[in-house]
Amino acid sequence: MILLAHSYYLRNDPKQLARMKPYPPLATLLGAALLRERGHPVGLFDAMLASGPEAFAAVLADTRPTVVAILEDNFNYLTKMCTVRMREAACVMIGMARAQGCRVVVNGSDASDRPGLYLEAGADAVLPGEGEANLLTLIDAWGADAAVPLRTIPGLALADGQGGIAYTAAGPPLRDLDALPVPAWDLVDVAAYRQAWRSAHGRFSWNMVTSRGCPFGCNWCAKPIFGRRYVQRSPEAVAAEMQRLKAEVGPDHVWFADDIFGLTPAWIRGFAQAVGRRQSRIPFMIQSRVDLMQPDVVSALADAGAEEVWLGVESGSQRILDAMEKETRVEEIRAATRILRAHGIRACWFIQLGYPPEAWDDVLLTRDLIRAERPDDIGVSVAYPLPGTKFYASVRGELGPRENWEDTGDLAMLFRGAYPTEFYRRVRDALHHEVNTGTADEARWSELAREESLLQSGETLPAAS
């Protein structure tokens, strides 16, 4: 039997545990569905709501799999952040599986960037990038010949026996997403997710995906799984899955986990029409870009059931957007927010602090844009250098021994930014206060301005009151 697993334990992430918005591991469930379609018996260890690796040990003992495939949810931005706690949990799970005599293969953003860490922990192989097709090839090969040389199998990262990494020939990417099976929802404890959501929020949300990848070139955005290619399912296939999801799972809401939902007006209009024909409308949330929020697109999104759009705003300073190679304008941020609001859709913003050469005036431009346009919600982060990005290359010499956050709420500056971590945390809190209360706390910002002056003069930031 093949045991599919992932290493994102909600309990290891205090910020997300407090939010209590858990989603099942979509990429892991797709991998399970593909293996099962090929005739392999599969099981699932879902770490999301589990108590910890000891729960994984219990599943190992009960199921006694021959292979453990740790497939991280490559569609969930929380797992794509490659936190230390996720990595540590994955390595513990690898050790547990090997101790029971299992073969182990790993796929995920961090494993793609740093395969040696996972191979050293005991994995037989790492699947860099998009791993499903290569996983099928590997499992089929092991099933036919347990002693098959791994170097003959495409799409693997292997230990070369000399302290380095050897890569086998690249496997084919998935192109026909409509040919994929429905994720293996039946392997998930749906009742546990429903209880968690309804207890915390009064309704039950589920996740779906309509595409893979992002064609845009923001220079801080890591793309270790799909690169810059963009592949879509057909609108009809997505609407059909929603229809089936309503019947089999029954969520009150859907989060489309695409990096960029829809991309073209024609696709989004076709999606709205397909949802209408199939009567598969479920209120949903997406992620997109401000320059894609044109009036006809937003109208179609509203018709399809969009409740909330998260926009990669990042900054209210045009010079920072340009430094990021974002290819968006502040005027487009304003226009997109107003168009969404006019159609009754919540406009929410991702904000990124600390991206060079951000200075205090740039922070104030971001604050003033928030005050002027009043987004319905914001998510605030600081610039986070990830391997493979132009941004990472530009600050690599400034990185210390620590290159990853402990958890998603860490907000630690990992390079020598304009200000220290604690100052950015205070700015984050001030921005959230502006949005959550709808009021300007000028006393708080005056104190921040005073602290900024102290930092500029080389003094130490006073302790938070």
For the record, what CATH class of the largest domain applies?
Answer: Alpha Beta
Beta-strand segment tally: 15
Largest sheet: 6 strands, parallel
CATH topology of the largest domain: TIM Barrel
Coarse structural class: alpha/beta
At CATH level 2, the architecture of the largest domain is: Alpha-Beta Barrel
Summarize this structure briefly.
By secondary structure, the protein is of the alpha/beta class.
Describe the structure.
With 465 residues, the chain is an alpha/beta fold. It folds into two domains: 2-167, Cobalamin-binding domain (Rossmann fold, 3-Layer(aba) Sandwich); 203-456, Aldolase class I (TIM Barrel). The chain has helices at residues 14-19, 26-37, 53-63, 77-80, 84-99, 109-113, 115-120, 132-144, 190-201, 235-248, 265-278, 295-304, 318-323, 330-342, 360-373, 390-395, 421-437, 442-456, and strands spanning 2-5, 42-45, 67-71, 103-107, 125-126, 157-159, 165-167, 205-208, 211-212, 231-232, 253-256, 284-288, 306-314, 346-353, 377-382. Strands 8-11-12-13-14-15 form a six-stranded parallel beta sheet. A five-stranded parallel beta sheet has the order 2-1-3-4-5, with helices on both faces. Strand 11, helix 11 (265-278) and strand 12 form a beta-alpha-beta unit. Helix 2 crosses helix 8 and helix 10 runs parallel beside helix 11 (265-278). The longest helix has 17 residues, at 421-437. The radius of gyration is 23 Å and the shape is globular.
